[in-house]
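Hi C.,

You asked whether I'd gotten around to modeling the 340-residue construct. I have! Everything is below, sequence then structure, no commentary in between.
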Amino acid sequence: MRPSLLDRSPEQLVLEVGCTLSEARRALSHLISHGNRDLEGMKRPLSKTLRAHLLDTYSLERPKVLRTVEDTVDRSVRTLFELHDGQVVEAVRIPLAKPGHFSVCLSSQVGCAMRCDFCATGRLGLTRSLEAWEMVGCWLQIRDEAPGRVTGAVFMGQGEPFHNYDAVIRAAQRLSAPDGGRIPAKSITISTVGLVPQIRRYTQEDQPYRLIVSLSSALQEERRALMPVAGKWKVQELMDTLRERHARTGRRVTLAWVMMAGVNDTPEQLKALRALIRDTPVRINLIDVNDPREGGYSRLDAEALERFRDGLSTLGVPIVRRYSVGAESNSACGMLAAQH
């Protein structure tokens, strides 16, 4: 398969096909910023020779939409895509608080190798990682069909973004480029289960995108049981790495906590979390577990949630409740792919 034009930077095109930087930027802006499917109709047309050269060298293919599922309660729309090799992956259009504005939750892998026990995608296993152009193509497809403006992207769907680090960063760069998706870098979020070496690399490279680290347990052995791969690193080592990131960037550390009744809402967890974060500026995002298995993990009921939030409030850090989208259709990440 030919390389895709959707994940090339202007500088790469200059080196690869010998065009000028201005020509490269105009071509990419036409395709990505403005969502065109070909190189026809440009305000300042490329020469016929250059246009033919680009089309002979690169593909303009996007992933194919197989199915969409809309939640009538939260109005999220989950899309199942077929990739060029027949694999399937999901992305979700998420309504934002500002009317008519949306973000897109993107997958970074077909399946996942992290084996998190509460995650539907983790039970699929890993088939392969997505290329940057596939992630950009999914975002473009959803943006072009959205009934409003898509102003953000979240790499928090199927897969572990930091297990596909280079492609995810490349996709984020294209989505935030002036000749790409034109999303502010601060409106792009990358999530990780807590792969310590990649977090250190991300910090050292001064990547401008937001980072969320899934913690979900402050007790080492329980976290290892819930998140076998991420649990290879001790929670204290993970937190030390995040302290280093805060010292370098000055940004508050965001921790995601998937709430599972009777598992990580206990007094022992609160005590361990208090000792773990100490005086580190953190924000905790609370997320309901979405496990449809019979006998699987359950969400906290109203009383347990209130009690847990009261306990967290003693930490003196911002607590944000994040709602799992698509609950009405029971569509946790990976479920559409598994059904397909």
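If it helps when you're writing up: The longest strand covers residues 88-95.

Thanks,
B.
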